[in-house]
Each structure stands twice: as C-alpha cells, then as structure tokens.
Amino acid sequence: MKTYIIQLLFFAQCICVLYGQDVRFSQLNEKDTVAVAQNLESFDNGSATLDSLTGSQESTMKILEYYVMHTNEVTTKMKLPIAKSYAVWGKYPEAAELAQDYVGTYSNDWRGWRVLGGCKVAMKSYNEAVDALTKAESLGDNGNYSALGGAALLADRLDVFESIALPHLLMLVNDTKGFPEGERNQMRGLLIVYALKTDNESIFLKAIDKVNMRDISQWEELKNLIAQGCARFNGSDIDTIRKELQAATEISSSLTATNPSPKRQ
Hints:
Layout: H1 2-16, H2 30-44, H3 50-53, H4 57-69, H5 79-88, H6 92-105, H7 110-122, H8 126-138, H9 145-154, H10 158-172, H11 181-198, H12 201-207, H13 213-216, H14 220-232, H15 236-258
Helix pairs in contact: 1-9, 1-11, 1-14, 4-5, 5-6, 5-7, 6-7, 7-8, 8-9, 9-10, 9-11, 10-11, 11-12, 11-14, 14-15
C-alpha cells in the first residue's frame, strides 16, 4: 500500500505540469511594461486568450514582473493569467489566492477552477483540489482527468474517481492522437493505483491493454506499478504480462550494461 501511494505522489507531481522554479523579479523596461499592460487589457476585454498570454515562461515572467509593480492596477479578470503565471513558476500559494479571487467573481469559468485545483494538488490540499477540479469538469473542462483522478486517489475520494475520472481515463489511455506517450502513461499509472487500491484485476488489465512492455520498461515508476499488479493478481493473462515485463527488463538491463552512460568529466 505505502509503495504505490508514494508512486502515486510521483504521478501527481507530473500531472500538475508546473515548473516550480525560482523566481527572481527584475524591473520591466518601458516597452515591455506597455506591452504587458496592453495584453492584460486585451484579456480583460475578451480579445486575447489565456494561452496567448501564458504560452511561454518568458511571457509569464513578464506578467509577474508587471504585477509586482502594478498590483493595484489589475482587474479581477486579469488575476487569472497572473495566477497561472505564478503557478508556472511554482508559486502555488500566490497563484491559489489569485485564482480564488477570480472564481469568486467568474464562478462559471472552468479555467479558474482548473488553475485553483492544480495549485491545491501541488500544495497537497487534495480534498480542496478534488472540489475545484470537479467544479472545472462540471463547467466543461474535459482535458484534465489525470489531475482530477490523481487528486481523488490521494484524497481517497474513490466515488469521484469512479464516477468522473475512471470512465474517461479508460477511454483516453490509448488515444495516441490526442495525448503524447507521457500523458497516457500517467493515465495508466492512475488506473493501476486504483486497481491496486480496490483489488480490481479487470481495471489493471484494461490499463495496460495494448502496451508494449519493452517500451514501458523505460518508465521506472510505471514499470514498478505493473510489477505490483502482476504480484497481486493471478491468471493466464497476468502470467503472460509478467513474462513479457521480465523479458523487457532483462533486455533493457543488458543494453544498459553494454552501452553504459558516459562518465562525467
């Protein structure tokens, strides 16, 4: 139990997709100050999107540098891109406070609830994260089921996981066109943790359906979860998976021994 909860925490850190880097503010020059102010005003009047303002680390840093110097000049609506910018740089309490202010006024905007929920996951306030992410989903956020599922499992809110996250994760886990391999493997990890928590062999098998064990052996945390599932469950299907995983691990170990990583100078 303890082992896969630790691994779940690893997956939760991944699904936040937040950088968590140190922030060293500097003063914006006049040109950048005018540009950021115009961008925030455009967002405020609906002519600019959230992604267009926060699509790069450089742009989020400039937003934060502007906000530090012009805190009293921003509107409530402008607090959403500022909150997301804080989250990108790992300033989760600051981001959560601004996101909370935003949803207090714009309570029907799922974007604010998503930012708030992601911050609450990072702050390990999992029940609050579940509440915020569930609210976001109910308002139309259909692309954040990994975050919601991870928060629900960490909060032991299996009812939320089963009713909302589970059916979507099962549907999306093999969607190679819609999600990159890393995101799909996060989904697999969450499904396996749920299967282990509930002793559900069927979900375990669905989680790893169509998986090439040689590829999965490169994902250490997921490989360990699959190994735990093979140790927990029985049957011919499990035996086949166990053998495939063992063979893939042996091949991976052999290749590593043959081609060791170069030593640092």
